[in-house]
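[Q] Does anyone have a clean structure-token version of this?
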Amino acid sequence: MDKTIDITLAHSGLLFTISPFVLKFALRLVGASCAYFFCIAVYNAVFHPLAKYPGPFLARFTDLYAAYHAWKGDIHLDMWRCHEKYGKFVRYAPNRLNVNSTAGLKDIYTQGKNFRKSKNYSTMVHQALNTLTISDPKEHGRRRRVVSQGFSDSAMRNYETSMVTIVQRFCKRLLQTVEEEKDSASSNTWQPARNMSQWCKSYAQMLEN
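[A] Here you go.
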């Protein structure tokens, strides 16, 4: 029959009994877990295919670095800071490489390239998928063919006359309000600032009509 070990928790006065077998198993489990995580850390830092790329130190070992900035709400700013510091290629997680270059944009996003969008795009889905958030290449290609018909060279030329007319109306109305306020105000004072957000909404409504 196995001997037991009495363990008293400090400051609590609680006494419980544990078998040496259970204690050895627990210690071995902790040791094996430490060894596993140590090996993973060494692999990510030295032998991983992305190990040669620079990036934040913690990002080499865990996704929690990116998760923290996503939770904080400044992940876009942190990515920009990282590219400013490390260059075009930044290792932003153990299995993630951020690319910020014109050549990289073409190589990754040109139709027919052997790249699949990250699962992170799914977090940007609101009610329905669109060409930005779809990760399935076949479905993306089908929708892209439909959308591209409205952005072909011939289609854009057909829009030109209407667009120029709307832009002229927008600018005319904006300048008209400036002249109206100039007549009613002193010439030595600044004119009130324009809320361009509201003006751009009006411009968008002109486009819809």
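[Q] Thanks! Anything notable?
[A] The chain is about 55% helix and 10% strand.
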